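Duplicate of #3305? Posting structure anyway:
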C-alpha cells in the first residue's frame, strides 16, 4: 500500500477503504489545497493505507473491454485457504463483557438523501444528527471531497470529519454482530461499509448507518442515504452481515470523547494487528464453509497484506479474482495493488489500474498505483505523469506527492 520510500502500497493503502482513499477530509483544513501536510499528518494517514489498501484480469470483470487473462491461477480448482501462522485464536473484543440487552435504539435521527455520489458525506451527517449535531451534507462534502467525481470517501476520512466536529470516531475491520449491538446499546451510532446492489444498477460500495437493533426480530435499524427518507430501513442480522462481508466487516463508531474507553472495551484498540488477525481468522474459518466466495478470499488477502504476508495475500487475491469480483471492487479497496507491488508483479498492477481507468478516468488511487508500478519498472517519465493525474483527480492525495518527490530529477 513502502520507509523513506514509505512503500508505495503502504502509503497509498494506508490512507485506504475505501484503500488510498481521497485524503480530502484529513487535509481540508489547510487553506492551500496543494499544501503537503507535515510528518504527523502523513503518519496518521498511513495508518489508513495499511488497512484499507482496499480484481483483476479475469475476475475483475469490467463490463466491456479491458479483460485480460488471469495468470498463475488454475481455473479448475479452488486451493485450500492460507493457514494462519499462529494456531491460537485471536482474542475477541468484549469477550468478558455481559451479553448486550435484547434491544436498543438511538434517536432521533435526521434522514439525509445523498446527492450525486455522496453516500459518505450524507451518512456521516446522519450519524452526527443521532448525537444531536445539526450538520449539512454540503459541509461534509466540502470537507471530504475536492471533486464531485471523487468515487471513494474512505473510513479514515469520515473519522477525520467527525473529529473536526468535536466528536470522536474510530474505524475497525473484522467486526461482528455482537460488537455492533454492544456499541448501539451504549448509544453509539455505527457506520458500516457494505456492498450494495441498487435496483437496476451494478454492485457498488456503500455506507449505512446503524442506530438500533431488536433480537425479537433479529434486525438492525438502519438509515440509508439512498433509501427510504425518514423511514427506518430494517436490516436482518444475516442480510447485513452478508453485505458487510464485502468490506472485511469495516465499521466506524461515532461517539463522544468521554466514551473512548467504552469503545475500546467493546471494539478493541486501534492497533491494526489484532484487528487483522481476527479478520484473518474469520476469513480462514469462512473459507471452510464457502470456498468459492470471492469476497472471503479477498478479505483474507486484505488481512494478510496488512500483516505483511504479501506472498500469501497475492495468492488469496488471485483466487478472489478467479472467482469473479464486482468490477468496481478496486475503486474502494487496494490490497491487491499493495501485495502485487511487494511481490514484484508489476504487470498485474498495471492491468488492474488500467482496467479501473478504462471505466472511469478520475480514480486517483488507480493513477497512483499505476505510477508506482511504472516507477518500479524504471519508466520514470510515465510514472511522473501518472502521479500528476492522481493529483489532478484529488489535489490532496498525499502518496502522489510523496512519490513524485522520489523520482529522479
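Output from current build:
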Amino acid at each position: 500500500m513502502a520507509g523513506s520510500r514509505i512503500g508505495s502500497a503502504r502509503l497509498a493503502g494506508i490512507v485506504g477503504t475505501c484503500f488510498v482513499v481521497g485524503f480530502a477530509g484529513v487535509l481540508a483544513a489547510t487553506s492551500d489545497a496543494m499544501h503537503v501536510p507535515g510528518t504527523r499528518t502523513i503518519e496518521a494517514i498511513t495508518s489508513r493505507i495499511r488497512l484499507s489498501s482496499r480484481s483483476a484480469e479475469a475476475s475483475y470483470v469490467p463490463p466491456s473491454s479491458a479483460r485480460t487473462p488471469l495468470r498463475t491461477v488454475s481455473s479448475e480448482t479452488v486451493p485450500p485457504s492460507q493457514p494462519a501462522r499462529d494456531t491460537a485464536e485471536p482474542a475477541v473484543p468484549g469477550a468478558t463483557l455481559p451479553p448486550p440487552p435484547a434491544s436498543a435504539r438511538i434517536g432521533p435521527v435526521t434522514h439525509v438523501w445523498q446527492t450525486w455520489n455522496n453516500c459518505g458525506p450524507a451518512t456521516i451527517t446522519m450519524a452526527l444528527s443521532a448525537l444531536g449535531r445539526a450538520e449539512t451534507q454540503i459541509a461534509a462534502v466540502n470537507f471530504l471531497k475536492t471533486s464531485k467525481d471523487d468515487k471513494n470517501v474512505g473510513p479514515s476520512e469520515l473519522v477525520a470529519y467527525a473529529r473536526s466536529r468535536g466528536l470522536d470516531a474510530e474505524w475497525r475491520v473484522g467486526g461482528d454482530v455482537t460488537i455492533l449491538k454492544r456499541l448501539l446499546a451504549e448509544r453509539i451510532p455505527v457506520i458500516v461499509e457494505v456492498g450494495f446492489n441498487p435496483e437496476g444498477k451494478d454492485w457498488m460500495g456503500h455506507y449505512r448507518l446503524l442506530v438500533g437493533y431488536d433480537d425479537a426480530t433479529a434486525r438492525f435499524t438502519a438509515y440509508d442515504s439512498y433509501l427510504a427518507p425518514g423511514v427506518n430501513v430494517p436490516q436482518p442480522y444475516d442480510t447485513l452481515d452478508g453485505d458487510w462481508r464485502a468490506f472485511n466487516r469495516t465499521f466506524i463508531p461515532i461517539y463522544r470523547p468521554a466514551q473512548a474507553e467504552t469503545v475500546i472495551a467493546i471494539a478493541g484498540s486501534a492497533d491494526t494487528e489484532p484487528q487483522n488477525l481476527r479478520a484473518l481468522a474469520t476469513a480462514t474459518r469462512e473459507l471452510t464453509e464457502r470456498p468459492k466466495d470471492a469476497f472471503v478470499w479477498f478479505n483474507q488477502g486484505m488481512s494478510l497484506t496488512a500483516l505483511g504476508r504479501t506472498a500469501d495475500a497475492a495468492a488469496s487475491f488471485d483466487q478472489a479474482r478467479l472467482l469473479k469480483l464486482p468490477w468496481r471492487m478496486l475503486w474502494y479497496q487496494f490490497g491487491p495493488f499493495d501485495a502485487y507491488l511487494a511481490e514484484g508483479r508489476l504487470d498485474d498492477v498495471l492491468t488492474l489500474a488500467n482496467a479501473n481507468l478504462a471505466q472511469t478516468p478520475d480514480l486517483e488511487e488507480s493513477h497512483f498505483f499505476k505510477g508506482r508500478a511504472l516507477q518500479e519498472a524504471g519508466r520514470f517519465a510515465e510514472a511522473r505523469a501518472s502521479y500528476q493525474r492522481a493529483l489532478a483527480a484529488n489535489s490532496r492525495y498525499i502518496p502522489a506527492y510523496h512519490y513524485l518527490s522520489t523520482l529522479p530529477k
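Confirmed duplicate; merging threads. The chain is about 45% helix and 10% strand. The longest helix spans residues 272-289.
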